[in-house]
Amino acid sequence: MMTLSLVGEIAAGSTRANHIGKANAASYAASIIGSISAGSLFELFGFGPIFAVIVCLMFVAWLGVFRYLKPDETRIHGFPFSDLALNRRLLTLSSFRFQYAFSVTLVRTWIPIFAGVAAAEGGLAYGGLAVALTVVAEKFTNMCCQPFTGRLSDSYGRAMFVFAGGAAYGFVALLVPFAPTIGAALALPTEIVLVVPSALAGIVLPAWIPLEVIPTQVSMFGEVSPAFLPLVALSGLLGIADSFREPASMALFADEGTDDGGVASSFGIRELVWRPGSVIAPLLGGWLMYEVSMASVFYVGGLFALTGVGTFLVILVWSHGRRALVEW
């Protein structure tokens, strides 16, 4: 939160979403690389070296901040949080964000559950690598798109991007339970196979490698169903949809904080509004999965996003005028 507050405060108003998008993209890249490298290190060396690497990385990051980030000489008197809490623009944004938190938490949490749990429980029973790809797909597309979508929202209006991104996220979430139907209709394969070039196939490997010879083909994710590729594609689309919403939303909160002298306070409100959804949604999702169905989790998650953008649009037009969607 503090990092993004600093980015929002340092960036000029006309390029704020662009810089926030780049900061978020760097965060997603670190998350993807960290997840993959941590898993590899654990398999090779166990837990201890992983934490040693984390300590070293944090020390290098601290040195970078100490060396290159100029001290903040500004001082805010009073308690800006109380003024920002009643800010009309922030209240309008919060009407969307409160509901959207339920949507994102439900969908992001339950996509790997949907991919990994047994078919008897409504899942697809994929292996660990296949499940990981469904998670990484959203982060990867989000990472790639945010610098571009942030720049676009600076040019064409941020409220429109919040609305469009939230609506798209809701519609894509509603399609997730239909991944098996889509895969079956397209007659997609049940196994993803990598064909090894003939020049390499059959080469005898050293004795210390578990595999004796290089095979002619390698199964990438083991046995999967036709739903696998549609699920990965839908996860990627969720990342694209959210990449339109996230930098624009952060920039709007930063705009209000900068105007009222408390960027960190405005981001604090942003996080506070998100917390109820992030806490209650997992409980709601668990109840829906066991008492109703796996698909109902995604239906409810999608509806939360759609009701959120609907509420946002109504309040925006009612309180700020019909052109507010394109002027903010």
TrEMBL record:
Pfam families: MFS_1. The lineage of its organism: Archaea, Methanobacteriati, Methanobacteriota, Stenosarchaea group, Halobacteria. The chain crosses the membrane at residues 49-69, 113-137, 158-180, 192-211, 296-318. This is Major facilitator superfamily protein. The keyword Transmembrane helix applies. It comes from the Archaea. GO terms for molecular function: transmembrane transporter activity. Keywords: Membrane, Transmembrane, Transmembrane helix. InterPro entries: MFS, MFS_trans_sf. SUPFAM superfamilies: MFS general substrate transporter.
